[in-house]
Amino acid sequence: xxxxxxxxxxxxxxxxxxxxxxxxxxxxxxxxxxxxxxxxxxxxxxxxxxxxxxxxxxxxxxxxxxxxxxxxxxxxxxxxxxxxxxxxxxxxxxxxxxxxxxxxxxxxxxxxxxxxxxxxxxxxxxxxxxxxxxxxxxxxxxxxxxxxxxxxxxxxxxxxxxxxxxxxxxxxxxxxxxxxxxxxxxxxxxxxxxxxxxxxxxxxxxxxxxxxxxxxxxxxxxxxxxxxxxxxxxxxxxxxxxxxxxxxxxxxxxxxxxxxxxxxxxxxxxxxxxxxxxxxxxxxxxxxxxxxxxxxxxxxxxxxxxxxxxxxxxxxxxxxxxxxxxxxxxxxxxxxxxxxxxxxxxxx
Length: 348
Known about the structure:
Layout: H1 2-10, E1 22-28, H2 34-44, E2 47-53, H3 56-65, E3 73-74, H4 81-86, E4 121-133, H5 134-137, E5 157-160, H6 163-173, H7 183-197, E6 200-203, H8 210-218, E7 223-227, H9 228-235, E8 241-244, E9 250-259, H10 266-276, H11 279-289, E10 292-293, H12 297-303, E11 323-325, H13 333-347
Parallel strand pairs: 1-2, 1-3, 5-6, 5-7, 9-11
Antiparallel strand pairs: 3-9, 4-7, 4-8, 4-9, 4-10
Helix pairs in contact: 6-7, 7-13
């Protein structure tokens, strides 16, 4: 039993090598393909050792646990920047070592969890909004998250099978912040989500492909909460499928680079960040995993043929002004966890 615990806790460390021209990255499992890592190594001579995680909680726990060994770079989401900083697990970033920092759109910089981007470098983001089948709607106009609750759509709605994200959708649909700390509002959003979920189908994006989504909209289904990139991927097969950012604002999630407090290969980490902030590299990474790049739209348009990147949705600065980032809510997280667990109990 002790041996199993040892393996669970320290297996991510095996293979790390802090000597020579190396870089140790702890990242989301899908972010960096072997092709990207080999291209970086070919250009710089730096060997990347990559370990991966599947959620922020796993990353946070391991970074705290193996603090004395440490990775050089990690990829936290917005709401984990402050906890990492407060625990002293990440260090200030010298942006003069990252010339391509200038390529990042102002829409992603200066967020209140890191006003001067001293601890985080925005990299990739995803947007969730509403997808709808124009043919099935028969002239009904969609413009709000509240449209998911309309009586005429009962049985024709699909929602993402992620209770954390859907509770945030419910909050925003009621005019509340997705990051509210008021239990009364969270409770109301939970009650509304229960009503919606009982009349909706769930989409588990980890288990479906484009063909499944096409089949979903070829049937009697009318409206769904979906990632904008997935909608783009199926629009070429069904021109009746459209995507909107609801009037209350879309849901955005963003991941950033952060430099660990005990990083051993700091200069190499700066080189890697700078490498990934080049338009050709950033767009290639985003396109591979159906995410979006934080780089300036005009810069990308000037340097690349956008038609070659079918899995990315390029948004102008004006379009990106209508989103609220997810942030750390401290001890109030326990309120959310209570309702997430209740939703799992009811619907799983």
